[in-house]
Amino acid sequence: MSAANKSALFQKLPSTDELLRQPDVQALIEREGHSAVAESIRAVLASLRQEIAGSQLDETSLDLALGGLTGAVERQLRESLRYSLLPLVNATGVILHTNLGRAPLAASALDHVRATAGAYSNLEFDLETGERGKRDVHVDRLFQKLLNADGVEAGLGAASGERRPAGISTIVVNNNAAAVLLALNSLAEGGEVIVSRGELVEIGGSFRIPDVMSKSNATLREVGTTNRTRVADYEHAINERTRLLLRVHRSNFKITGFTEQPSLDELVALARRRNLPLMEDLGSGALFDLRAVGIAGEPGVLDSLRAGVDVVTYSGDKLLGGPQAGLISGRADLVARMGGNSLFRALRVDKLTYAALEATLLAYVKRDHDAIPALRMMRLSKDEIARRAEKIVSSVACAQLKRLKLEMLDGESVIGGGAAPSAVLPTRLIALTHVDLSADDLSARLRANSPPVIARAEEGRVLIDLRTVFPEQDANLATALASLN
Ligand SMILES: *Cc1c(COP(=O)(O)O)cnc(C)c1O
């Protein structure tokens, strides 16, 4: 196209101001504001200019584009004002999926966040004295009930008469990585921390115990070997610089074969004998008894405290099922040292977290475990899941399947989130295959759904696990599956 022709096309383009004066654009401005609309107009005009310059538009196609200009502006506006963080359907069966936001919050947690964060609150204000208060009281009082000997029996798996730890307090930081950092820095700065070589874990997202240790200004003293560490190895490594014994939960891997690890009781006895604190990074840290959902051998917070561990660290959004947070529970004198550390100020959490955590903990106090979505999902039986799967499959099959094929098969859901590495729950899966589309294509189509559906692709099939799908999402999911046909 000649330069003269192009220049004639450029002449046809309206100015931003002309477009802003059009009645349907005025309506957009009323809804979304002048500056966002003007920006969208500039973006649409710029792309038309680019297309003219690149000879992609002739007079006819430009006229066509100009006829739909306000529609294009509206689409551009919608695109630019769209949220990036979106709710989605987790059909992977991984309950605590780190990439999908780990634990969904309880309805009461959301209500409490809305009520307290949309207004002023007594976050750090003592309503009795009218003086400044401490933000930790809002959740520490509930942890007292859940973890202390003198608190109420909260049904955390402790048989009556069992030893319950006394004098436990809890503080909250941003996540468990921060909890470990704060605890190590408060208890062992300038000294040595003894850890088994078999527990020098990397959790992912570059949380590596040796790195956190060096950032905390404590020196890592590795003992034992990758597969075998005995309590004598810890004992031999203790010297006058030793400040802490550390046990790290192997939350995302398992060592099998010729292995040895001292029991918690042995470590507690050694720590007492040598007058050193023992800390355990539990990672997940269940506040309920996992045996109730058929998972054995995963220590809960209370198991560790009851065994005599002085300090435990764990996440708020893993097995606890609450907001992202790092919890430090333990001997009141040690936890007080952490609360007085200036690092604590840098790692503390905001009112949203306290509100969500307080409501989540209240559900535990009331033993209302089904109020917490992650716990409810863990407690779902295979039969319940199978019933929902059958309903979805038959509703999709009503639509006369031509190219899509649905089957049901047995499978396993995973707890995930660095919680209980070998813990799986029996489930019933919907397997999808398609005459023309590969499993990757099907997954991509499901991701493009609104809301996006995330599923597992395995052996040429797409697998849908309803354990992590909220029942109120089932109908929506069925529509998304039918659209693949
Ligand atoms: C998950 C995990 C962490 C990190 O916790 P975040 O809350 O993600 O920071 C640390 N240690 C262990 C053992 C874990 O499982």
What does this structure look like?
The structure is a single chain. The chain has helices at residues 3-12, 16-21, 23-32, 34-53, 59-67, 69-80, 107-117, 137-147, 176-188, 209-215, 231-237, 264-273, 301-307, 332-339, 342-347, 351-365, 373-379, 382-397, 439-447, 474-482; strands spanning 89-90, 168-173, 192-196, 219-223, 242-248, 278-283, 311-315, 326-331, 404-416, 419-434, 453-454, 456-458, 461-465. It is α/β, with parallel strands linked by helices. It has 3 domains: 3-81, no CATH class; 105-371, Type I PLP-dependent aspartate aminotransferase-like (Major domain) (Aspartate Aminotransferase, domain 2); 378-482, Aspartate Aminotransferase, domain 1. The strands form 3 sheets. It has a 7-stranded mixed beta sheet, sandwiched between helices. A 4-stranded antiparallel beta sheet has the order 9-10-13-12. Strand 3 (192-196), helix 10 (209-215) and strand 4 (219-223) form a beta-alpha-beta unit. The chain is globular, with a radius of gyration of 29 Å. The chain starts with a helix and ends with a helix.
